[in-house]
Design brief:
Elements (H helix, E strand, L loop, with lengths): L9 H40 L5 H29 L6 E4 H11 L5 E6 L4 E4 L1 H18 L4 E10 L2 E7 L7 H6 L8 H6 L2 H11 L3 E7 L3 E9 L5
Parallel strand pairs: 2-4
Antiparallel strand pairs: 1-3, 4-5, 5-7, 6-7
Helix pairs in contact: 1-2, 3-4, 4-7
């Protein structure tokens, strides 16, 4: 019997990886959430009852608290991939969605430059806001919470293009090539987390696309293209 050879594109491989992660998340999420919740309670108790006797002890307690938050965020990112199955769409103003994402993710040290135009889109508002939030958070992390994020929208034919750029550490060629791969692992990729994977998944469900350009120490530019809403 002749042996068959199958050739998969990078996109197909990522789809299969997402399926594997979805199965894992659906089985393990409950137990993982319980474990992290327990560790979080212990961390909170220690922070309120233990008085550090040295600078090292203080740093360890602070690190424990931060790592619990990081772990919880990673679990949430994995769960997001399993939840993005159905959309609740409505007609809304993309400009308002972006402004809400900015307001919800403002932190000290980060300034925003906006050049937004009102434009109607037919999307799931919460899911699309999540796309912008994920990208904003990545930009803030890349700049170590100190810098400027520039966000602009333009109409190109029947599409609206949103660009989000930062002046952060940027990505090297390997990380840029694999930044949407949920199983790709480098120090930079771990800093990005799965936010871009989820953002791409949601955007493609809206018949849109995400493009990224980046250079080390020169920042990153993310371009999100979505179809505009046309009344009948």
């Amino acid at each position: 019997m002749e042996e068959k050879t199958y050739i998969f594109t990078k996109k197909q491989l990522n789809i299969e990886k997402n399926k594997v992660l979805s199965k894992f998340a659906s089985v393990a999420s409950h137990d993982l959430k319980n474990v992290v919740g327990g560790i979080s309670n212990i961390s909170y108790y220690l922070s309120k009852t233990v008085k550090p006797e040295s600078e090292t002890q203080k740093k360890m307690l602070d690190l424990l608290s931060k790592e619990v938050i990081t772990l919880n965020n990673r679990i949430t990112e994995v769960l997001d991939m399993t939840r993005v199955k159905q959309l609740t769409k409505s007609v809304c103003d993309l400009q308002n969605l972006i402004i809400k994402a900015i307001e919800e993710n403002k932190i000290d040290g980060i300034t925003f430059e906006q050049n937004l135009v009102p434009v109607k889109v037919y999307v799931d508002p919460e899911r699309m806001k999540q796309v912008f939030s994920n990208i904003i958070k990545n930009a803030e992390d890349a700049m170590k919470n100190n810098g400027t994020i520039t966000i602009a929208t333009t109409i190109e034919g029947q599409n609206v293009v949103t660009t989000i750029s930062d002046c952060g550490q940027g990505m090297n060629a390997e990380t840029l090539e694999n930044c949407f791969d949920p199983m790709f692992s480098t120090k930079l990729a771990k800093a990005i987390g799965m936010g871009l994977t989820v953002a791409q998944q949601i955007t493609e469900m809206h018949n849109g696309k995400i493009d990224i350009s980046s250079e080390e120490q020169k920042g990153t530019l993310v371009k999100i293209t979505l179809p505009t809403y046309k009344e009948d």
